[in-house]
Amino acid sequence: MRVLIVDDEAPARERLAQLISDLGEHQVVGGARNGEEAVALAERHRPDVVLMDIRMPGMDGLAAASKIGMQEAPPAVIFVTAFGEHALEAFDARGADYLVKPVRLARLQQALQRAQQLNRAQLDALQRVEADAHSGDQTHLLCRRRGNLELIPLQQVYYLQAEHKYVTVRHADGEDLIEDSLRTLEERFPAYFVRVHRNALVALDRLTGLEKDMDGRRYAILRGLEERLEVSRRHVADLRRLLRERAGRG
């Protein structure tokens, strides 16, 4: 793999470069001293993986990784730092792995192998999503699970619920977070989902009815799921009409 090394200390860059040379399977394409250089060199050299220090003057490694992640076909990022307390931030930033200095050869090899697997998974997932998009018939949602990009078949989805800046996808195998807004998903998949609340969409083929509790609140009944989703008053009439029309067609 093509590797970009980012660290504000020259000895640290040189040591990582030597370790990569010792592995004999990868090529160092550049070294950056700060986040700004890292973003520029990632754009120029198109590495497969970036070894990224976190604490650096100016733009730190987390900010640089975020910007690199917005590039076309972004590389995997492995965070490398002397400060173990940054581990949670690194994984929140979707790093492929996290190495603590001094980096051991075996651990570096393990991280690079993981990054290589991640890149293959990303490529496969993105190619399938792109094929869906070109055919005009998208059949999956794309999420990131433990650093890997994964596809969720729409047929397995029960509902989508917005919370803060993420959307939770509740599906047959559990839950995942995606970054698309609820409005975007509603517009992209009008044949799959219907809005039941300002913060929730349910799968049309899972919706089987409405129920009312003792306080007058209404909930959507979803096939295959014991959990109930509250329906806001403004959407009750539309959902009743939809259910009547479906019953009439049946």
TrEMBL record:
GO biological process, one term: regulation of DNA-templated transcription
A single GO cellular-component term on record: cytosol
InterPro entries associated with the record: CheY-like_superfamily, LytTR_DNA-bd_dom, Sig_transdc_resp-reg_receiver, WalR-like
Modified residues (4-aspartylphosphate): 53
Pfam families, sorted: LytTR, Response_reg
Lineage top rank: taxon: Bacteria
Residues in HTH LytTR-type domain copies: 141-245
Coiled-coil region: 105-132
Gene Ontology molecular-function annotations: phosphorelay response regulator activity; transcription cis-regulatory region binding
Amino-acid biosynthesis as UniProt keyword: no
Domain Response regulatory: 2-116
Keywords from the named record: Coiled coil, DNA-binding, Phosphoprotein, Two-component regulatory system
PANTHER family linked to this entry: REGULATOR OF RPOS, TRANSCRIPTIONAL REGULATORY PROTEIN BTSR
Name of the protein in question: Two-component system response regulator AlgR
Organism: Natronocella acetinitrilica
Taxonomic lineage from the root: Bacteria, Pseudomonadati, Pseudomonadota, Gammaproteobacteria, Chromatiales
